[in-house]
């Protein structure tokens, strides 16, 4: 199964590099969730961005995709 591509369909290594930078990861995470049609998840990322940033890093390294708290 191919790895899910996050941050505008970029490869996971590029997404990982972008996820290392906190502000970039916060903005791209919000935009990605809104593009997926997950409005509530996007709003949660706006206000809980710093905690989710750490989870994004962990998930990007271990599972090769960003953390998705709400995937509905």
Relevant terms:
0% strand; mainly alpha; single chain
Helices, strands, pairings?
Blueprint (H helix, E strand, L loop, with lengths): L11 H9 L1 H14 L3 H9 L1 H14 L10
Helix pairs in contact: 1-4, 2-3, 2-4
Quick rundown:
The protein is 64% helix and 0% strand.
Polypeptide structure, described:
The chain has 72 residues and is mainly α. It is 64% helix and 0% strand. The chain has four helices and no strands. It has helices spanning 12-20, 22-35, 39-47, 49-62. The protein is globular and about 25 Å long.
Order of helices and strands: HHHH
Number of helices: 4
Global shape: globular
Beta-strand proportion = under 5%
Structural class call reads mainly alpha
Radius of gyration: 11 Å
Low-confidence blocks of residues: none
> Percent of residues in helical segments?
55-70%
State the major sheet: none
**Strand segment tally:** 0
The termini sit apart by 21 Å
Task: Estimate the mean pLDDT confidence.
Answer: 82
């Amino acid at each position: 199964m191919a790895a899910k591509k996050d941050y505008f369909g970029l490869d996971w290594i590029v997404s990982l590099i972008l996820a290392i930078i906190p502000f970039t990861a916060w903005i791209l995470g919000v935009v990605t969730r809104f593009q997926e049609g997950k409005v509530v998840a996007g709003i949660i990322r706006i206000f809980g961005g710093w905690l989710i940033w750490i989870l994004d890093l962990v998930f990007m390294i271990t599972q090769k995709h960003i953390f998705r708290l709400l995937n509905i």
